[in-house]
Amino acid sequence: MVPALFLAVVVHLLLDRFVWPKPGWVKLAAHIPAALLLALTWYFAILVVRALKKVGVESTLVIDPFSPVAFAWQMFQGVTFYALVALASLAIVLGKHIDSLQGRLAAQSEELPHASSVLIKTKGDTERIAIDDIVAVSGAGDYAELSLADKTVLSTSRLGHFEAVLPFDRFLRAHRSHLVRIDAIVRTEPAGNGRTTLHLENGSSVTTSRAGSRLLKEAAL
């Protein structure tokens, strides 16, 4: 049970990192080799476990393959396991997006339509910062680091809170760890592998994810 849960977590992390950010047809195509790879890994893992159980009796490690029918059954189990994990992973990812969207809409509905500043919670204090002064917001564990024109501010709120509160039409989720004010981008350049480096007005730079690069192209006029 524990190895299966561990394998499920690994598969979810790989899907979250390499598959779900892809376009629809790429996601669909990626599942075929991924399912076969996991099924083969499942099969060989069972072979090794069976061989290890026999070591105490035969004193040597001998790996005996299954019969064709048993092999087909094990592959079917592996593919089925992958399908269940992929569905659960997709549900988790969609749940996060829905929660983020709901939180963002709820938070912005409470904000003044033309709010020009936000209150930032820092350790033991609060600070009002003009939205125009925020160049980027980066995740820092349970905190968020705000890059301003001339300094940085560490907030005790998470990055997701800022994504929900800051005006969605002015800030870009450039990366899972970075929000960037769109009009603070001075210039961009390709960073390879579908990513883009953003050079910001305070002299810093942020490299987008592939998904962030697509969002940037959609936001550009």
How does this model look, in words?
The protein is α+β, with helices and mostly antiparallel strands and 221 residues long. It is 51% helix and 25% strand. The protein has 2 domains: 2-109, no CATH class; 117-219, OB fold (Dihydrolipoamide Acetyltransferase, E2P). It has helices at residues 2-19, 24-58, 68-110, 159-165, 210-219; strands spanning 117-122, 125-130, 134-140, 143-148, 152-155, 171-175, 178-181, 185-192, 195-200, 205-207. Strand 1 (117-122) and strand 2 form a beta hairpin. The mean pLDDT is 83.
Outline, from the CA principal axes? elongated
Which segments are poorly predicted (pLDDT under 50) over 5 or more consecutive residues? none
Overall pLDDT level: 83
The description of the largest β-sheet is: 5 strands, antiparallel
Radius of gyration: 24 Å
Question: Which secondary structure elements does this structure contain, and how are they paired or packed?
Answer:
Blueprint: H1 2-19, H2 24-58, H3 68-110, E1 117-122, E2 125-130, E3 134-140, E4 143-148, E5 152-155, H4 159-165, E6 171-175, E7 178-181, E8 185-192, E9 195-200, E10 205-207, H5 210-219
Antiparallel strand pairs: 1-2, 3-4, 3-7, 4-5, 6-7, 8-9, 9-10
Helix pairs in contact: 1-3, 2-3, 3-4
